[in-house]
Amino acid sequence: MTTARTVLVSGGNRGIGYAIAERFIADGHRVAVTARSGKGPVGSLTVTADVTDGESLDSAIAQVEAELGPIEVVVANAGITKDMLLLRMTDDDFETVIDTNLTGSFRLVKRAIKSMMKQRYGRVIFISSVVGLYGSPGQINYSASKSALVGFARSLTRELGGRGITANVVAPGFIETDMTASLPEEQQAEYKRNIPAGRFAQPSEVAAAVSWLASDDAAYISGAVIPVDGGLGMGH
Prior knowledge:
- The structure is a single chain.
- This protein has helices spanning 15-26, 54-68, 91-119, 131-134, 140-160, 178-181, 185-194, 203-213; strands at residues 6-10, 30-35, 45-48, 73-76, 122-127, 165-172, 225-228.
- By secondary structure, the protein is an alpha/beta fold.
- The chain has one domain (6-228): Rossmann fold.
- Strands 3-2-1-4-5-6-7 form a seven-stranded parallel beta sheet, with helices on both faces.
- The radius of gyration is 17 Å and the shape is globular.
- The N and C termini lie far apart (35 Å).
């Protein structure tokens, strides 16, 4: 029997974040999602917030805790890309991606973790990417932001591991989303040739790994990077 927890997923209105929220609802948890626009899945509480705006997160977290109780699980999922080769990438292209993907995760986790420290229980899960450690041309900003989450999780583990709080990273590979579906077929085939599993993942497969890390079964796992990439980034 799973203990019902209060879960907050950033960027839970589409893609992987939406699938993660759906899975937590199916597991019987109380689920809230942050979104700049749109809504999370049926059964979730959607709060309007932008991870680049600390004040919006303050009010969002206050609302979640007033309606669902103290946050026990936080999933830092909100992220953006601005792909460009280094010599053409502007300072703004780099800084905007870092501000959302990395600093946004800091803003979210710093605020959500206060309840966990009081309760001496918590699960922090960062959604990174295979390219965080594997690298990808044209994604220096995105790759840097995603690899930084590993250092964040490991430092957090060393700070708060003794208080019943774990911090882990899930690193998805190519996921079956609207974005990958819109790629030319030859490009999709080329990507699949490099993936030992020979296919893209379903968002639900990423959500399953997140669900497990949030469970009581994963209480002794912290500072880990769990790849969900069909073998693409092995050894990275």
